[in-house]
Amino acid sequence: MSQKLVLVDGSSYLFRAFHALPYLTNSKGDPTGAITGVINMLRKLPDQHATKHVCVVFDAKGKNFRHDIYPEYKANRKKMADELRVQIEPLHKIIKAMGFPLISIPDVEADDVIGTLSTHASNEGWEVVISTGDKDMAQLVNQNVTLIDTMKNKVTDEAMVQERFGVTPDQIIDYLALMGDASDNIPGVPKVGPKTASKWLNEFQTIKGVMDNADSMKGKVGENLRASLEFLPLSYKLATIKCDVNFDYQLNALQMTPPNTNYLRREYEHYEFKNLLRQLDHAEVTNSSPQTVSPTPSIDSNYEIITTETQLATWIAKMEIAKLFAIDTETTSIDPMKARLVGISFATEPGIAAYLPLAHNYEDAPKQLDFTATLQRLKPLLENPAIQKIGQNIKYDLKVLARNGITLQGVAFDTMLESYVFDSAATRHNMDALAKKYLNYETTKFEEVAGKGKKQLTFNQVSIPIGGLYAAEDADITLRLHQYLWPKIEAIETLKSLFEQVEMPVMQVIDHIERTGVRINSDFLQEQSEALESQINILAKQAYELAGEEFNLSSAKQLREILFEKLEIPPLKKTPGGVPSTSEEVLKELAEVYELPSILMEYRHLTKLKSTYTDKLPLMVNPETGRVHTSYHQAVAVTGRLSSSDPNLQNIPIRSETGRKIRQAFIPSEGYKIVAGDYSQVELRIMAHLSQDASLLKAFKEGADIHTATAAETLGIAPEEVTTEQRRKAKAVNFGLIYGMSAFGLAKQLNISRSEAQTYVDIYFDRYPGVQQYMKTNKAHAFADGYVETIFGRRLYLPDIKARNMGIRRAAERVAINAPMQGSAADIIKRAMIDIGHWISTEAQGRVKMIMQVHDELVFEVKDAYIEQAIPKIKSLMEGAAKLDIPLIVDVGVGDNWDEAH
């Protein structure tokens, strides 16, 4: 007999129970309707289905990947009622106490988790019952998977899907995409309901078939279909339940455990559930302290709080003998340039960890070891390069310790970077996510020890017994993560090399860049803000005059009323919600004919520059250093590129004159110049190297202008005959194709017909057959291996490369083409940073400072007297960071500000 798994759509249960029952409260006024409704539905399931394999799945807090794809996803939904919100957390705890496994995965919806579990179980031959009221789940139905609506006692199998919807389970996604979903704000074809959708799908089988035959559709519904073609693929993607969510689970482990009757009794008494109380036995209530914080009991642990000199000496000796230990600092701020050190935790073996409190200063805080003297005792250990240290995002700890006189050495591992190198796209790389994914362990959250919101304590205010266990757990879990991840990385030589020779060394370089910071001219920015304010006011007045009234220029609703109702400008495009669009793309096109859209575009541009940069940057100057210190993130972009925040240096504009003025505010210290080295067309050069296309290699080796060369090749003319417009089109093709742009996208960008664009693409591939072959080969490798690699062995896994959904698979194929180029470019500039960092520390210390990394550019402060020696050295080291079959070229500039040097 096959095993049976019941998957409960907890989120569906929750909302249906809340809206189905009257507004219920206990005598204290606490809402109880959703809690009691869900409990009563759940407790019947194990007996009804004769299985202990029952799992409850809830949506996680916050947005998910569909919001990234389509920001308006579920935008029409009303804010969750406070009466429901306050019931969610206690309900989750009660469900767990009842013995049900409960799963909630960030960045995806409950549907996606259920889809993943049901697909896996079905493939393993299990019988699967999905308990839900959500029609979208019909796409999961097959011979092993059925749906049951507990509230209506209705079962939906394959035959019932056909009877209920008029289509097969395999067509449900197409069906949903054609109709759209008002509750989720998924756009569909206007006026297309169940009958039309099922009729079309019975005739044309798929949504693609419907779209391909759009021209043959008659009447208003045909017009609506043709007007909807652009966003139907998006609707299909939004309606598709993801069936390959990456999280750790074992099907056999998804079964009920004995209930915690003491906890249930306490909660049932609080909520005054008399019927439920009668069903519990009369076990005594456990008098557990709500302030006690301890690690999840699924791991053995022996945590200690160091409060005496003897304990400290014992732990120092233990770490010296261990030769490798995990370290973590606790501070007062997430900004390491402002944070005050509160304590340090260590772990030498799994479960063997300690917390050393140094600066807890709450009322009645116990006496702690002397701050300065204790750090002096730790200094030889922490600065000993022969004793290896492990951290989670250890770059933070490096700064904190450095600001307290300790240069942490022997930094061998960072679990955040280990996870990133192992699989950059698998999960977020913070400790909580990694512990959940790789150790199946739920870490203690900071909010559990410090509180939330305005009342949240800084760590120095957290009691030592509570904070100590939290801190020791951080070090312990860091060590456990390393022991899990490192053997997997070490087994793949390219990943081991990438970690040891690129990611760890460049982390140290980035640390120095961040600590150095960059000097800005705040007075200059203040002047810019005032000038921008004046220009913005002038633009606003001009807009009011053209509109004939004052209105909120930042309000899309008011803007629509002015443009399309009052001024009767014909709308060019509608949003998925069916209203005229006021997007930048639309305004840009309207600006060619109408003055008001042109003014509005300039207004938006200037207000963004003012609020994001000229107003904000001076406020970000660190009072201790007088400089702005950005944070670079190694483990965010899946391709290996660095990103930055606070401020985001990657987004400082360069094309507009006003934007370039912001770069003029980035200035050197007295007696220094700004020097910038920028890789020239690095991704196209990598494409030439990877594709080995003879014409591309020849053009780069000869130092030709690659866009002119491409135009000459594709048009069959001499390079000197190429016009500016022809070069512009060739440039769009060069860059568009390496990002997987289709002929449709190229036509739109160049404002030409799709057939003309397709002809241009066909000619390009005819002239550069190596490029086309590279694309085909890389897609084939991705399909076979599940990942692609950079020149240096960085892997990017592509789980969607085998997706049944054509749109999702095509997107993965585009990534398979571009990721090796983006990732290789990221690896190259990181290698350059390492080489230059070594040169600065050994030869040019004090005369050269690396202050920024932005896209393919490195920015330095160089002493005036050292400019002539530094520029050729920087150029040489950057160009020598990789040996390709064509030369890497770096353009180096110098100036009194960043704009001059670029």
Explain the overall architecture.
The protein is α/β, with parallel strands linked by helices and 902 residues long. Helices cover 49% and strands 12% of the residues. The protein is built from 37 helices and 22 strands. The longest helix is centred in the C-terminal third of the chain and has 37 residues, at 806-842. It is globular, with a radius of gyration of 31 Å.
Q: Strand content of the residues, in percent?
A: 5-15%
- Distance between termini? 71 Å
> Which CATH class of the domain at 302-491?
Alpha Beta
Which strands sit side by side, in order, in the main sheet? 3-2-1-4-5-6
Poorly predicted parts:
281-298
Profile the largest sheet.
Answer: 6 strands, mixed
CATH architecture of the domain at 302-491: 2-Layer Sandwich
Helix-strand makeup class:
alpha/beta
The proportion of residues forming helix, as a percent range, comes to 40-55%
**CATH fold call of the domain at 302-491:** Nucleotidyltransferase, domain 5
What is the molecular shape? globular
Kindly report the name of the CATH homologous superfamily of the domain at 302-491. Answer: Ribonuclease H-like superfamily/Ribonuclease H
